[in-house]
């Protein structure tokens, strides 16, 4: 690039003509590559995935027993929010959490595949639990530069929908703690 507008790019659409993008439907707000002050740095991304079930009436230990799956974390209704402080506020609901077990540099779709596979054998019980439980596929994503994304294939999303799970996507800005 020589820095002229004729050789610049709209970050949204591609080549520009003068100060405007060549696409008629672009509002022209995409930043030209020629105004970048420094090259993009290497970016580390992290991902995480878990299944979360929460209930006001079903205990976390009962969820484990009914699904036949041990939780990574369980919190019972009425237990202290802070185990180190017995006078802390009490939990209003029970929570059952099972992580994917994958490394945090794995593809987000891989977290989803592992968790769907984990629940595949207990679809009927999960459907019964959903009457009294909120069931979520909880996904986290973060990157050092704040940019990034992933693709979740349609067939994988159909599998998630077949389990009756809501999807919660938790996005972390640059500098967020990686130990999610």
Descriptive terms for the model:
five-stranded mixed beta sheet, about 180 residues, three-stranded antiparallel beta sheet, 2 domains, 4 helices
Write the layout of secondary structure elements.
Blueprint: E1 9-10, E2 14-17, E3 20-21, E4 45-55, H1 60-67, E5 73-75, E6 94-99, H2 108-119, H3 123-129, E7 134-143, H4 154-162, E8 166-172
Parallel strand pairs: 7-8
Antiparallel strand pairs: 1-2, 2-3, 4-6, 4-7, 5-6
Protein name: DUF4279 domain-containing protein
Organism: Nocardia aurantiaca
Pfam families: DUF4279
- Proportion of helical residues: 10-25%
Give the H and E element order. EEEEHEEHHEHE
User: Strands of the biggest beta sheet: in what spatial order?
Assistant: 5-6-4-7-8
Number of strands: 8
Form type: globular
- Average pLDDT confidence is 79
Which structural class do you get from the secondary structure elements? alpha+beta
Largest sheet features: 5 strands, mixed
How much of the sequence lies in strands comes to 25-35%
The low-confidence runs, each spanning 5 or more residues with pLDDT under 50, are 1-40
Radius of gyration: 22 Å
Number of helices: 4
Counting structural domains, the number is 2
- N-to-C terminal Cα separation, in Å? 40 Å
Notes on the protein architecture:
This protein has helices at residues 60-67, 108-119, 123-129, 154-162; strands at 9-10, 14-17, 20-21, 45-55, 73-75, 94-99, 134-143, 166-172. With 180 residues, it is of the alpha+beta class. The chain folds into two domains: 5-35, no CATH class; 45-172, no CATH class. Strands 5-6-4-7-8 form a five-stranded mixed sheet. Strands 1-2-3 form a three-stranded antiparallel sheet, with no helix packed on it. A hairpin with a 2-residue loop joins strand 2 (14-17) and strand 3. Mean pLDDT is 79; it is low at 1-40.
